[in-house]
Amino acid sequence: MVNVQNTLANINLLEGLSEDIVEALNKQCRWKWFDAQEQIIDRQAESTDVFFIVQGRVRIIIYTVGGKEITLDDFTEGKQFGEMAAIDSLPRSASVMAVERSLLAAMPQSRFMELLTGHPVVAARVLKNMAHIIRISNERIMDLSTLGAANRVHAEILRQARENMVDDDEAFISPMPIHGDIGSRVSSTRETVARVMNDLARKGFVERKKNGLKVTNIAALSQMVEDVRGD
Amino acid sequence: MVNVQNTLANINLLEGLSEDIVEALNKQCRWKWFDAQEQIIDRQAESTDVFFIVQGRVRIIIYTVGGKEITLDDFTEGKQFGEMAAIDSLPRSASVMAVERSLLAAMPQSRFMELLTGHPVVAARVLKNMAHIIRISNERIMDLSTLGAANRVHAEILRQARENMVDDDEAFISPMPIHGDIGSRVSSTRETVARVMNDLARKGFVERKKNGLKVTNIAALSQMVEDVRGD
Q1: Which of A56, A211, B211, B223 has a CA-to-CA distance to A172 between 20 and 30 Å?
Q2: Beta-carbon contacts below 8 Å between A and B
Q3: Is pLDDT above 70 for B66?
Q4: Which residues form the HTH crp-type domain (chains A, B) (predicted)?
Q5: So what's the pLDDT on residue B123?
Q6: Domains in chain B with CATH codes
Q7: pLDDT for the residue A225
Q8: Beta strands in chain B (DSSP E)
C-alpha cells in the first residue's frame, strides 16, 4: 500500500485525458485512506463530492431503520461513486462503506460538473455508467418481483461464477462468499442463504474449498435460473 | 387532437434551445401516432431511437415470459424515453406501450448523441433524469425487499395521492386507478390489490366516486407506510 500514489491516472472515467489535466485534477481532490468497514458516505447526508477509487473496494448499501442492509453493488479500483448527488444536488441515495482499506480521491461537485461540460467523452462515460446501473436495477426489480428467495440466491451465485470462470463449465469464487453478503445482495437472510447453499452443495453445484467456492455444472445452474426467471 | 403540431417545442429536455434548432430537429424526427395499447418499443429489440412524447401517455413495462407484467413508470407529454439504448447501444431494457393515443417523435441515435455533445444543458438534463430513475429504482428495490404486498399497495396509493392533492389531507385520483395497473406497479396481483383496497375503504382511507378515487386521512396513511418502511 505504501507504493500507491495520489493520482487519478488509472481512473477509467478519465482515460484519454492529457497528463496535465489529470495532474490538475489530482490537486483539486481531497485524498484519504479509509479502513475496512469505515463509512464513507452516509445516506441522506448533504455532501455532493464524487469519489474515485484509487485502491480498494467499497460497497453501496441502503440501510432501513429496522436494521436491514440491502447491498446495491460493490465497486473497485478505477471506478467512481457519488455522481448522483453531484448531478442532481439531492441527498445521497445510499450509504457507502469501505470493504477493504481503500484510497479515495474526493472531487468537489463543481469541479466534477466542469469536467463533464468540458469533456464530452467523460460525460458520455458517465451516461453509459448510469444506463448500466438502471439496467442492473431493472433486473433486480424483475428478480424481486418474480423469483423466490432460493432462486435469487441461485441467480447471484451464477452471476459471481460467470465473473470467475476457470474452465468451460467451472468457476472458482475467491475469497469464499459470505452468506450475509449474498443475503444483502438478494434481499434475503443469512439463514436462507445458508440453507440454499447447502442444498446446492448436496446437488453437486458448489463445493467448499480452503480458499473459496468451486462452482460446477454452470450450464445446468444457468438453465435452472432461466427456467424460473422465464426470460 | 387535430390541432397538435409536429413540433418538439414543448419537450422539457430541449427547453431554451433556439427556434431554429428545434425546427431542424423537428425535421430529423420520424413522427407517428400510436393508438392506446399499441406497442411502441419491444424489449430486446435492436432499435436505438429516442422518443419524445408530444401528446399522450406511455407505460414502461417489463414482461416476463411467464406473462407477468411489471410496470416501471408512466411518462406523459413533454418527456422522452428510449435514451438508454441510444446511450449504450445495447438492446432495449424494457417494453413501451401507449396508454392513450399518443403522438411521438422518434429521433435517430446519432442525432440524439450530437444533441448531448453540442448542448451541455441538454446533457445535464439527461443526467439528472437518469439520476432520478436510479433513485426511484432504489426505492422500489427497498420496498420490494422490506415491505409486504399490502404495504406496497399502501405506498403506491400514497404516491398517487400526493400527486393529486385537492386539500391539506385529501386527494382525488382521476380516472379511478385500475387494480391490475397498481398490481403491475408494485409487483403484486390484481386480487391482492382488490383485497387491500377494500380494506382501505373499510378503514376510511379511500372512497370510490363516480370519476375517481377520493383519498382521505393522508397524514395517517403516510404514517402507516413510514412505520412499516422504517425509513
Answers
A1: A56
A2: 133
A3: no
A4: 147-219
A5: 93
A6: 12-144 (2.60.120.10), 148-229 (1.10.10.10)
A7: 84
A8: 30-34, 39-41, 50-55, 57-63, 69-76, 80-81, 95-98, 102-107, 165-167, 170-173, 206-208, 213-215
